[in-house]
């Protein structure tokens, strides 16, 4: 087997958690997508391996909401649409908005050098390159020292401010601006820059400028205490069942930390807080659409700045990446937003260009979705939801 298939667990984890890269490709529907189609897609996803699924679609006229679970997870926890969920890399959209607010207020320049505010960043990297991931910076999640943290087995409590230093020990992957690469280092660095520019803590900026302004009562930046309210229970396969889902030769060790349940590990106790400006937010399927509508509706930024956020560079998979926003191109049309993944939690949150129609798709696992049938069902679920949003 070639070396590229023998990645250590840290690389596999980095590809699945915090960042969230699954996008949608499927055949075009021949008729308008119905509510029944959405229910069937959710049921197929559960049957393919998702312990629980929550979906909310607002097509501008009516809202479709549903929850599906398999029997063993339902015995442990009755999933509700309003349950708090680790939204992980959806946080990057919030960080992008906060950066552009500083730009609007004249404190920061998109095309200015990032190392003016964080000296360890190599020369030639601009704030814009951090936002659209063309900086070339190494992803700290690919450093072996971070694997125990991601598995919930690290006695050390990492501070977000420690993480850029880990990344800067590694050489850049390519010259600044040469191409696109998903690296969480970009957004942790932006969190540090936001604090330096504003003189405020990142958590306070999120609270004052997003959460309080929009009245999002169940949205907050995670800390070591984890969830604050009623929340979804997240699950990942135990060590014996995790191995077959990963590339051959990937060491899994003892797998994820947490209580054992039906060949799974309950992962809600794994600390999300180090994800910080790259993925530390918790929210619900009912609240996050408020944020996306406010962004595209001009309540958080002047009209020209959300437009600049959607100026995307190619990801290499048919989709694009703007300034904190994913451009997701589906058979039924384009939507904007982000996806996210953390052990036990998967999320897709998108809005159409008008800012009036939104879709949220949540699942209570990430690694179980590596199985081919589960991955296929996930793509179908996201596409079906987007088609319902567009009325196609």
Helix-strand category: alpha+beta
Order of helices and strands: HHEEHEHHHHHHEEHEEHEHHEEEEEEH
Integer average pLDDT: 92
Continuous helix count: 14
The total strand number stands at 14
**CATH class, anyone?**
Alpha Beta
* Major sheet summary line: 8 strands, antiparallel
Tell me what the CATH architecture is.
3-Layer(aba) Sandwich
Helical content band: 25-40%
Shape: globular
Strand content: 15-25%
CATH fold annotation? Beta-lactamase
Instruction: Give the neighbour order of strands across the main sheet.
Output: 2-1-14-13-12-11-10-9
Measured between the Cα atoms of the first and last residue, the distance is 44 Å
Query: Which consecutive residue ranges, at least 5 long each, have pLDDT under 50?
Result: 1-13, 15-29
Q: Please, what is the CATH homologous superfamily?
A: DD-peptidase/beta-lactamase superfamily
How would you explain this protein's 3D organization?
This protein is of the alpha+beta class. It has one domain (13-390): DD-peptidase/beta-lactamase superfamily (Beta-lactamase). The chain is built from 14 helices and 14 strands. The chain has helices at 9-16, 35-48, 71-76, 91-104, 127-132, 147-151, 163-168, 185-198, 202-214, 239-242, 276-279, 288-296, 304-309, 372-390, and strands spanning 52-58, 63-69, 85-88, 220-221, 235-237, 260-261, 264-266, 281-283, 313-314, 320-321, 326-330, 333-342, 345-351, 358-363. Strands 2-1-14-13-12-11-10-9 form an 8-stranded antiparallel sheet, with helices on both faces. A 3-stranded antiparallel sheet has the order 3-8-4. The longest helix is centred in the last third of the chain and has 19 residues, at 372-390. The protein is globular and about 55 Å long. Residues 1-13 and 15-29 have low confidence and may be disordered.
């Amino acid at each position: 087997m070639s070396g590229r298939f023998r990645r250590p667990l840290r690389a596999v984890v980095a590809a699945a958690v915090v960042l969230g890269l699954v996008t949608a490709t499927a055949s075009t529907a021949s008729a308008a997508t119905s509510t029944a189609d959405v229910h069937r897609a959710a049921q197929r996803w559960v049957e393919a391996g998702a312990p629980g699924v929550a979906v909310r679609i607002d097509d501008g006229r009516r809202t479709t909401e549903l929850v599906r679970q398999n029997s063993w997870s339902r015995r442990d926890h009755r999933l509700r649409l309003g349950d708090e969920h680790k939204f992980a890399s959806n946080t990057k959209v919030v960080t992008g908005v906060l950066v552009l607010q500083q730009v609007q207020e004249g404190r920061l320049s998109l095309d200015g050098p990032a190392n003016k505010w964080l000296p360890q960043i190599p020369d030639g990297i601009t704030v814009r390159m951090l936002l659209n991931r063309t900086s070339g910076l190494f992803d700290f999640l690919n450093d072996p020292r971070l694997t125990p943290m991601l598995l919930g087995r690290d006695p050390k409590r990492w501070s977000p401010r420690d993480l850029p230093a880990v990344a800067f020990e590694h050489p850049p992957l390519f010259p600044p601006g040469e191409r696109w690469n998903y690296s969480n280092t970009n957004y942790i660095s932006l969190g540090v820059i936001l604090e330096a520019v504003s003189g405020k803590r990142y958590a306070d900026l999120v609270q004052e400028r997003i959460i309080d302004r929009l009245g999002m009562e169940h949205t907050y930046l995670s800390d070591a205490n984890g969830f604050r309210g009623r929340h979804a229970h997240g699950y990942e396969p135990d060590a014996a069942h995790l191995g077959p889902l990963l590339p051959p030769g990937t060491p899994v060790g003892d797998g994820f930390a947490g209580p054992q349940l039906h060949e799974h590990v309950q992962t809600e106790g794994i600390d999300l807080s180090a994800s910080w400006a790259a993925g530390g937010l918790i929210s619900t399927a009912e609240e996050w659409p408020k944020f996306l509508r406010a962004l595209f509706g001009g309540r958080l930024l002047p009209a020209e700045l959300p437009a600049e956020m959607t100026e995307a560079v190619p990801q290499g998979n048919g989709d694009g990446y703007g300034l904190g926003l994913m451009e997701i191109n589906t058979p039924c049309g384009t939507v904007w937003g982000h996806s996210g993944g953390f052990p036990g939690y998967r999320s897709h949150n998108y809005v159409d260009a008008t800012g009036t129609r939104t879709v949220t798709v949540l699942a209570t696992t990430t690694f179980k979705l590596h199985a081919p049938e589960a991955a296929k069902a996930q793509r179908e679920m996201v596409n079906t939801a987007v088609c319902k949003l567009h009325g196609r």
